[in-house]
């Protein structure tokens, strides 16, 4: 850090190097508004957790080609800013640098650096501003939305181009080191999750009972099971429930089916997509089972059991347990089918729908009540240990991401001089930068919820 005699103060930015210039936002960034008229560009891009990525084809469902006429064209080096819901963000994910040509929704602000500002350095400055919550003091409206006019006079500190390139080099090396550390943690996380899935599948189908007599079933999702176990249709244990909230939706909390089960959504945060009316949503009571019986392969989790009273989209199927089976055992068996996507023989149509009739006829394995209780107990004991390990890994990943963001912010905003460090760093190979693009440097947990409208 430079001494106070080498620094000056700029409003909220605090101390930064005296030899840096300061210019207004609109002097160093120009807004890009090139509409995709005539559909000249067909590659659709998305701002995803601080990265501008090519949107997968399966994510384009529901978007007709005509809608792309209103999208804006981006070029490599353009900077994208998501300008909505400023006060609802808890992480720095609203700024991304474009690496590919394509189109993106016109709801975003697209910028191009000009003058003495390198494009990549410009994106790093805006990411640092996002991390420091600078944008929160700007914007307008109930949801604190940004427009280019709100940004025009934000001061931007600018080092020389030589120092910008040194900072970029330092940041690239930092990101590669952090990315590799995160990648190792993610691989460990995946192995723990695979182990969890394998243990549940083994226990709910009696595969751990190596010395027991077994019977081959006619159902691929069951395989062989102990001969003492019964095989019953799902309708013997669940009955459909279709009770809509109607005009009383204001009396219910909103529920959502996610990778973590059935959770309560925060309507006050205004995050995500919501319908104009919740009147067609279904009533959910504690212990009800909820299923998403469409887009089964693409949905992170299609089965859950609610601990809450509330309402959920009418697109899902709600069932009440009959009490003829241990509900936790039933949930674990259905989760096993879902985790391993075993129900492919039941899919129908392009959207991989499981018809309700086929679902209710689904054959499941039914051990004795005592065995069900023992199986649930064994699963809980083992998975609790795995869940603790998973939580520790997630916390370590979060700390790595926080460290990365904090250091980059300090470097880009002049709190730390890295010119001498960067001078001694080797050049980064193209392959290393490509490796970096494959590793998620931002947390993707918030993407696990389906849009329920």
Observed structural traits:
alpha+beta, 453 residues, 9 helices, 4-stranded antiparallel sheet, 2 domains, disordered C terminus, Adenine-n6-DNA-methyltransferase TaqI, Chain A, domain 2
Note the topology.
Elements: E1 7-10, E2 14-17, E3 21-24, H1 25-28, E4 29-31, E5 45-48, E6 51-54, E7 72-74, E8 79-81, E9 95-97, E10 102-104, E11 109-113, H2 119-131, H3 148-151, E12 155-158, H4 161-204, E13 214-216, E14 224-226, E15 230-233, E16 238-241, E17 255-258, E18 261-264, E19 282-284, E20 289-291, E21 303-305, E22 310-312, E23 317-321, H5 327-339, H6 356-360, E24 363-366, H7 369-412, H8 419-423, H9 430-437
Antiparallel strand pairs: 1-2, 3-12, 4-11, 5-6, 7-10, 8-9, 8-11, 13-14, 15-24, 16-23, 17-18, 19-22, 20-21, 20-23
